[in-house]
Amino acid sequence: MSMKKKIGAVVASAALALTLSACGGGAGGSTNLQALKIGIKFDQPGMGLNSGGKYTGFDVDVATYVAGKLGTTPDKITWVQAPSAQRETLIETGQVDLVVATYSITDERKKKVSFAGPYFIAGQDLLIRADDTSITGPDSLGGKTLCSVTGSTSAQNVKKQYPDVQLREFGTYSECVAALVAKGVDALTTDNTILAGYASQAEYAGKLKVVGKTFSTENYGIGLKLGNTDLCNKVTDAIKAMISDGSWQKAVDANLGPAGFKPGTGNPPTPAACS
Prior knowledge:
three-stranded parallel beta sheet; D-Maltodextrin-Binding Protein, domain 2; globular; alpha/beta; 8 helices; single chain; five-stranded mixed beta sheet
């Protein structure tokens, strides 16, 4: 082999090595852990809220903790709005590295994305006006107009379990809450964590209440690129650490405690093994 060819072979080998090292372990592609794009909700008080560029909520705290364990400092996190109907697309197209957005783990979603978790177990409930005594649970929704968000498991559950209910779907829960206060709908359904967050807001004090009768189990997971087992394992380890060192409970108390919310049965959960 000539000297020119030898040099070319060395350069090619070096380039290949760099490419492989950048890809990281496991299937599903690479993730730069020095900087992360994380999808959260921007309109869910207590869970994920954007107030003039300040991000707060339980999901935000979970995401920040997990990112820290992955080697990403808070200033290197880019927060991306992740509406319910767009979460899989954001992950599949690489617009985000992780989604921590009251994201229920379902078999259907696992066909498109991978999940680490669960990191919280919630339950679907109803939010109604404080002076409404006619709605006591899902069985009393006959003839009522119920609001939920397009693409959410809450809307899908209602369609399946209560086909006689008039379901009205909006793009965000904030729109549903506004419609509820304005008497455009009779109730809002989604996870009890989200409803508690809205009910605790000062602007809705004395106007709204959570019925308190859950009728589903929602396992919140952290969504990531399908098949990226290496990243999934690292995120799972971070969730376990957050639970064991007390940070999980502190985040629950800080974000949901003011509404008097107490985590239900199964919390804190045991994250499942990545597959």
